[in-house]
Amino acid sequence: MKIKLKLSLQFTAIVFSIILVFSLSIYFFSSYFRKVQFTNRLEIKALTTAKLLFEVQEVDSALLKIIDKNSLNILSEEKVVIYDSNFNKIYSNTEHRSNNIDKEQLKKIKKNKRVLFSDKKNDNIGIVFKNNNSEYIVIASSYDKYGYIELRNLKIILIVGLLTSLLITFFAGLFFSKKAVSPIINVIKQVNNINEYQLDKRVYVDNNLDEIGQLAQTFNKMLERLESAFDSQKQFISNISHEIRTPLTSLT
Question: Do the strands 89-92 and 114-118 form a parallel or antiparallel pair, or are they unpaired?
Fold first, then answer.
């Protein structure tokens, strides 16, 4: 694998990892704050229902159901159930049997005063409401339709952005690695053009202070040593030839 491609892949992997961690963090915190905000809305709904039922004399269970039915609810599949301290259901804004809560869960809410829990679909909150020295357990549940739609859209945006960033990063890495490697390619071309008859040539680079410049200086020093060695060899051969020529002439 060429250095240019290797640098591009390494650069892409690093940037991809950073963007992936950043995207996961965004999605995690968005999901967390969705749940916190939706739970707060459920708690407000539970408290409002309990106050209307117990603190407003003109409102009874039947009227409160009518109010809930005809009010503009922004919560999807909203359910509010109220139990007394003996875990007897005294109010429910719907008549579904699924509104019945497990007794152990009711005990847990009574003990902890505020409990968050979820079923397969809905988010639920159970709180203890006090009125006239009596305690009531109020449970509100709903499906955060719009919150989950926003999370799904956010997920799509993050995935598309991640893949797009991956492609852009890869091609940008190829471009910059090509520029980074081009001085090395230039040095290689210059060195390939030097043979035993051109040892006086030297490698030239624009910047002698970076690593490529140091590599070029190393090649030049090596060429100087080779040139010196070849010159010494030629001088030695010339001297030997001269020394041998004289006695051969005499013998001839």
Answer: unpaired
Token pair belonging to 127:
């709180």
* 208 phi, psi to nearest 5 deg: -90, 0
Q: Long-range contacts: 96-104, Cβ < 8 Å, 24+?
A: 101/126, 101/139
Residue carrying structure tokens 């809305």 = 41
Q: State the Cα–Cα distance between residues 8 and 176, nearest whole angstrom.
A: 8
- pTM of the predicted structure, to 2 decimals: 0.68
CB-CB contact of 201 with 194 (8 Å): yes
For residue 192 the two structure tokens come to 């390939």
Residue type, 154: L
Residues 6 or more apart whose CB falls under 8 angstroms from that of 79 comprise 92, 93, 94, 96, 99, 122, 139, 140, 141, 142
- If you ran DSSP here, which 8-state letter would residue 84 be given? -
The one-letter code for the residue type at 94 is T
Contact 144, 41 (CB under 8 A): no
DSSP state of 33: H
Encoded tokens for 174: 């190829």
pLDDT in tens, 132-148: 888 899 998 888 888 89
| Token reading at 191 | 């060195």
Tens-digit pLDDT profile for residues 22-78: 999 999 999 999 999 998 988 988 888 888 877 776 555 666 666 566 554 556 678
